[in-house]
Amino acid sequence: MKFFDRVTIHTKHTTKAACIEWLATAGVSAAESDIISGIETYAHSPYRYCDIVVRHLHDQQRRDRLSSAYNRLRPGEEPLAFELQVDYSQADLLSASLCTCAMQRMMKVRSGSAYGTQYDWGNACEFCGVGRRQIGPLIAKRSLLSKKQKLTVSWDADWIVSSVLSGAIVTEIDGGEACINSVIDNQTRESFGYGQLVPLAELPPWDAATTGIAIDERDPRRCRVCCRSGFRGVAGELFMPVVDASKIDLGTIPPIMESFEKWEYSDVKGTLHGCPFVARGDMVLRRDVVALFLKLKVRGMNLSPVRVFNQ
Ligand SMILES: [Zn+2]
């Protein structure tokens, strides 16, 4: 049995003091400052909330206290997510045919439709808009992009890569060129050295053996047409994706894919609650891409090996 290395709690609290008070309700004293290793307020985003990262979860009691506090919260108070995470070894990651890749932080950068990126809605879900196809370059706000990061994700769930990483994908990955799209500045409309990472396929739904992801059937915001938006993490359960080997052909899969299940809700069609974002899927990377990203020391990734059932 592996230990959990950390839990990230995305809260709706807006101050550190409120986070510390919430931790106190979990029986985790603020005096235990060693376990509160990062709280960040997303002040410049459309949302304002704090992340709490709690490390040293080798203590089972501490983990249980946090899980039960999460479960006691009343509707409306609950954190947006309660993610248990494990830092897998390179050997673990490279022994898997596929890994999911979630970024630990989203950049406070809008992109996509916020700046007029064009989409073909022909095959998009008529209710939630998931499945729209981007046409042409991604338009993003250059000034807010970090030059240090090789891979980042915008608030609009677009994956943006540095010139170093996009160049390596094109030259070192079989089929890599098709995964890179150009990114242009929202003001000058010129390209500025970044690329967009584009998934070339959507995986089939995760197998029923998958843990750590669920959908609330009662939530009216989830999409009942395509059933792809509205997925959330399960509090206190590690995300361990499993795919049925009979549903994919590992010999012909493209380098970059996207999960069928999309996190949170999608309302790009504007029919529900006014959220302008498209629900986002997990990036799913083929083994050679995982190896390249590890070799180039891409930071900020939460990689999870995908178990291919019956393999
Ligand atoms: Zn839908």
Structure in words:
This protein is α+β, with helices and mostly antiparallel strands and 311 residues long. The chain has two domains: 6-85, Alpha-Beta Plaits (2-Layer Sandwich), CATH 3.30.70; 97-205 and 248-311, no CATH class. The protein is built from five helices and 18 strands. It has helices at residues 16-25, 60-72, 90-94, 163-172, 287-295, and strands at 6-10, 36-41, 50-55, 81-85, 98-103, 118-120, 133-135, 138-140, 151-153, 159-161, 180-185, 191-197, 213-215, 231-233, 242-244, 256-263, 280-286, 301-309. A five-stranded mixed beta sheet has the order 15-18-5-17-16. A five-stranded mixed beta sheet has the order 8-11-12-10-9. A hairpin with a 5-residue loop joins strand 9 and strand 10. The chain is globular, with a radius of gyration of 19 Å. The chain starts with 5 loop residues before the first strand and ends with a strand. It binds zinc ion. Zinc ion (ZN) is lined by residues 125, 127-128, 130, 223, 225-226, 228-229.
